[in-house]
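Key idea: predict the complex, not the pieces.
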Amino acid sequence: MKKSPPFVTRRNRLEPVVEQGVPDNGDTLSPNRAITVALAGQPNVGKSTVFNVLTGLSQHVGNWPGKTIEQKVGTCHYKDTTVTIVDLPGTYSLSANSPEELIAREYVICQRPDVVAVIINAAALERNLYLLAELLALPSPVVVGLNMVDVASHEGMKVEPEVLQAALGVPVVPMVATKNKGVGDLVEAIVRLVAGDLPYEPKVPEIRPDHKGVLAELRALCDPHVPEPYPPEWVALKLLEGDREVTRMMEAHLPDDMWLKVHAVLRAHEDAVVDVAGGRYEWIGRMTRAALVRPRIGQVTFTDRLDRVATHPLWGLLLLAGMLGLVFGLTYTIGMPLQDWLDTAVIGGLADLAGNLLSKAPAWLRGLVIEGVLGGAGMVVTFLPILLIFFAVLGLLEDMGYMARAAYVMDRFMHLMGLHGKSFMPLFLGFGCSVPAVVGTRIIESWRARLLTVLLAPLVPCAARMAVLALLAPAFFGPAAPLVSWGLILLSLLVLVASGVVLNRVLFRGRRAAFIMELPLYHLPNWRTIGLLVWQRTVEFLKKAGTIILAISILTWALSRLPYGEVETSLLAGLGRLLAPVGGLMGLDWRMMVALLASFVAKENSVATLGVLFGSAEFTVGGGSGQLTELLGSALTPAAGLAFLTVQMLFIPCAATVAAIRQETGSWKWVGLSMGFLLVVSFGMAIGIYQLAALVGV
Amino acid sequence: MVPLSELRAGEVGVVQVLSGGRGVVSRLAALGFTPEAEVRVMQNFGRGPLIVSVRDTRIALGRGEAIKIRVLKKEAVR
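Result:
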């Protein structure tokens, strides 16, 4: 019989409870209490569904301090108690394998939540209890939410919550969060555990007998030097596991001679990491022996049947191509017309309105509002319908469990670039908009692979670039425009692959991150989860449009007007003239270079700027393409037109994307590298294409 | 003892040894690839990544990672 350790929480001290009787009333709770709960769980356990059901729209989404990993906090109420719920990142363990795992354990150790609620997928009980085994070594008491019991029984598994609870000695609440079953019981268990109303006698996992001696030795060596608030026993265990962060911490805190001793012990037990993990799984085996009934071996499940197609090297690719075709189909049939309508009717209408309202105001103010604000940030917002389609479809596929399969079938191709399958998802998002693509790289564990994906994301032609392409290609190529457009999109993707191969060789010497990814069971989508996801991403995008995109739009507009109020004599035009010699190599005059520079605000701005520079008065904000097509067609040769379209497809991304790259990489160095790289690639390709076309006499 | 990557679809191996860097070993062990654990190969086309099932979970593994897991084929254990 193991003794349960005493738990000291911020507000109360939980003594091991002896009596098994459960007093069933809320009277023992003092009124208006506030408690904090950390919500933990492995990926694919329905944790976000639990969080959404509990907190609804009370969620606050931000970042963990100093990290680019999303932090969600929300509140819910149980009788008189306000429960603040902090959603920890989904992690398989609490080793220092990823920033998410570090965040989760640092939060539990340093912030000492009153309770850690760990959500467990009943259909993969053993592996899920691994996280519980790690959490029980930390100071906060733990409640288990046994989720997805419906999925487990569908898979032929039977889990007895009462038996599991008796074995573990911690409260176990059976749940089906997608059907809102048991979530209230979880909150009740949390509140009552804090109040001392529930028995809490955890059977804490112990290390294997052959490592007990060395663990005790490490603990004795470290104990006086372990910094607060880290538990010495846990520190000793993590040292034995070879944990990078804890090793670094103790190296800094131990006197040199002690560290040498510790180091010698660790050197002699370098392989202990597998034994410690194995010990935890032995403990899990004992805990689940009575509680878990397995199906006969060889039963073919729904997931197996679907995976025969979805993960097949050929059928899987075709299925994926079909899904992507569907997204593009929706984009063209619904998204693009809606974007066009928002552009002409809403932004154009607002521009007219502003023009009337400001008819007596100075011209610069009118210009600022109509061309700077509405033409820049306003134009970016018109792409929201297209983004909504991407967010919704990708959220749906993710929630159903398909996205992991897409990553799996794409792994062979991503391999070429030193990436693995997971990088495919954010890159695909890039067809909608580069901003969510860059932000979406957060799902990639390895920093190296993530950085490479961020650098490549701007090369995926976004909806805005494709809109410019669709608008301008007919000016140079008439009926052949669709063919040229598809060719240019294909060219962008080829450049992306080539860039990936080269950047991987040069920056990372061809090393490749490990590909280890869970393929979750398929399940029916949860509309609430998808809806909230789409909502949060939309809000995030609009916030960006209202702040940084707005600021840069106004700044670039000012550059195009200062100092004399005319584009032709502006600072931006000066810059364009400065670039004219480079432009000459690809057959472009200063006006085309200015249009290219203006695309930094928003990609469509290059069209609007051309309208101004070529004196097509009707062609301004919200005007649709008028006679610009004719003017451009006569001003540029097809070779120069092709060069312009090439450079605009590959040019540095818009300001919003640059801001996102800065945010995700955390340094201007990588932003600089990305911009420099894209400048070289886009100018290089355009010059090459123009010279080649001129050579063959186009 | 053979690398997991050599098992064909449908075959079951019992994990013996994990090799490779500490980070990968730690991740694999946490997911349940510990000595004595049974691993069933669900898909293996001889190149590219493979799908295995360990402790009720399907996991996609790069071939490089699968080579690092050495197993005894189940028939041989009997």
